């Protein structure tokens, strides 16, 4: 008898999450009866699922290049009771396999669902497909979604920095805030296309190393003095000096929505250096822009979906698909998998010291994921500018 398999998407979407869904359904629709779960784990709890007939299947396939999560996603607090009810829904539909595309929270919930089903004496196969722009999932070289977000950030910061470079007599400092929650992978990606020391970003701050207030002021002062402008990138999860809290915009269902550290730094620069500074939050385009999606990222997201289908057919369970980098010189990858409980044990995966201390090593690692076609702009040449407006500032014009 054919397996009955439910697939859902959870957490913040990416530019390529639908490619994983399409890869999965294309690989499995002839072998199994497929069901789509709407709105992530909430749909599982509410029994909001639909059988993928040929019309729905065709509609899903149209989303291979579309960002967002076409089944609906969301953030959902999954309690033990809610899990038990969800498993009852699967049981009543005769669904014996559950596959979810998501990040750390999604994988932890999948593992718990599997354990809960075991206690309920229901034989449930569970498989996870990785997805996160933050790249904070353990056990995989990188997660689908990250390469595209990194590409967006690298090109946006390159461009915003050239814009600032042109406007030095009016504005000297821009502080650009990236996503990434508690990790600095995305912020670090902003330097991928920097060409020489005069080019931005001049400084990148990651949550793995708290910002030292005094050093930050020195950095900005030095860049404005030497180059006439300073492009600074800060990850949303950064803290200023050890022991201070992250800057939060709001709390939704008990979850902190991070954001605003760039504005705090803008105020510090204005007050302490007396120059014009502007904070910019790079915003939701980081995880949603389809125009800057990385081709490599799309390919890998699709292949991750296909690999999950293969694991389903092989009766594997409690596993997450992983991406392995097979060569360093000429980038290549292969699909693998690891136990879900190992992913959970690994917790958040931080930007390693080796990459923080050796940015070139990080950029060599990142380049194939963001796209080898990306090119830096020509070098920035120093020009003489008499800075009328800010002649009273503490920084002499360059
Ligand atoms: O999907 C992950 C993420 O992009 C994080 O980098 C970021 O903190 C978060 O989503 C933003 O979404 P929200 O505003 O819902 O917290």
Summary of the model, kept short:
By secondary structure, the chain is an alpha/beta fold. It is built from 14 helices and 13 strands. The protein is elongated, with a radius of gyration of 23 Å.
Structural class: alpha/beta
Bound molecules: 6-O-phosphono-beta-D-fructofuranose
C-alpha termini separation? 75 Å
| Uncertain segments | none
Describe the structure.
- The protein has helices at 17-28, 40-45, 54-61, 80-92, 104-119, 146-166, 185-189, 213-227, 261-273, 285-288, 295-313, 340-346, 353-357, 359-370, and strands at 4-9, 33-37, 49-51, 97-102, 125-130, 173-178, 203-205, 230-235, 248-252, 255-258, 277-281, 319-327, 332-339.
- By secondary structure, the protein is an alpha/beta fold.
- It has two domains: 3-145 and 291-349, Rossmann fold (3-Layer(aba) Sandwich), CATH 3.40.50.450; 153-287 and 354-390, Phosphofructokinase domain (Rossmann fold, 3-Layer(aba) Sandwich), CATH 3.40.50.460.
- The protein has a seven-stranded mixed beta sheet, sandwiched between helices. Strands 7-8-6-11 form a four-stranded parallel beta sheet, with helices on both faces. Strands 9-10 form a two-stranded antiparallel sheet.
- Helix 1 runs parallel beside helix 11, helix 4 packs across helix 5 and helix 6 crosses helix 14 (359-370).
- It is elongated and about 80 Å long.
- The mean pLDDT is 95.
- Bound molecules: 6-O-phosphono-beta-D-fructofuranose.
């Amino acid at each position: 008898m054919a397996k009955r398999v439910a697939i859902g998407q959870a957490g913040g979407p990416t530019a390529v999450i639908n490619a994983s869904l399409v890869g999965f359904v294309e690989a499995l629709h002839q072998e199994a009866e497929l069901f789509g779960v709407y709105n992530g784990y909430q749909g599982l709890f509410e029994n909001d699922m639909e059988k993928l007939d040929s019309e729905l299947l065709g509609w899903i396939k149209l989303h291979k290049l579309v960002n967002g999560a076409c089944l609906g996603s969301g953030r959902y607090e999954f309690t033990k009771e809610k899990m038990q009810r969800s498993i009852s829904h699967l049981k009543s539909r005769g669904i014996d396999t559950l596959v979810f595309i998501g990040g750390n929270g999604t994988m932890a919930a999948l593992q718990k669902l599997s354990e809960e089903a075991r206690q309920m004496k229901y034989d449930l196969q569970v498989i996870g497909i990785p997805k996160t722009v933050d790249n904070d999932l353990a056990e995989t070289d990188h997660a689908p979604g990250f390469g595209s977000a990194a590409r967006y950030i690298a090109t946006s910061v390159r461009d915003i920095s050239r814009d600032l470079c042109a406007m030095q007599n009016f504005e000297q400092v821009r502080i650009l805030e990236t996503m990434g929650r508690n990790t600095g992978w995305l912020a670090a990606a902003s330097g991928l296309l920097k060409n020489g020391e005069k080019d931005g970003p001049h400084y990148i701050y990651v949550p793995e190393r708290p910002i030292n207030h005094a050093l930050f002021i020195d950095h900005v002062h030095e860049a404005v003095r030497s180059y006439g402008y300073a492009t600074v990138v800060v990850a949303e999860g950064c803290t200023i000096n050890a022991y201070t809290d992250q800057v939060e915009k709001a709390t939704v269902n008990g979850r902190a929505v991070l954001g605003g550290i760039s504005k705090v730094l803008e105020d510090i620069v204005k007050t302490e250096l007396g120059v014009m500074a502007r904070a910019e939050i790079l915003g939701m385009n980081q995880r949603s822009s389809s125009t800057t999606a990385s081709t490599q990222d799309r390919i890998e997201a699709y292949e991750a979906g296909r690999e999950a289908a293969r694991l389903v057919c092989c009766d594997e369970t409690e596993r997450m698909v992983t991406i392995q980098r097979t060569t360093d010189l000429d980038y290549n990858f292969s699909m693998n998998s690891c136990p879900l409980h190992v992913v959970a044990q690994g917790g958040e995966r931080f930007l390693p010291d080796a990459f923080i201390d050796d940015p070139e090593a990080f950029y060599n690692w990142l380049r194939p994921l963001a796209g080898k076609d990306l090119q830096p702009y020509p070098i920035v040449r120093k020009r003489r500018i008499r800075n009328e407006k800010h002649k009273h500032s503490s920084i002499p014009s360059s």
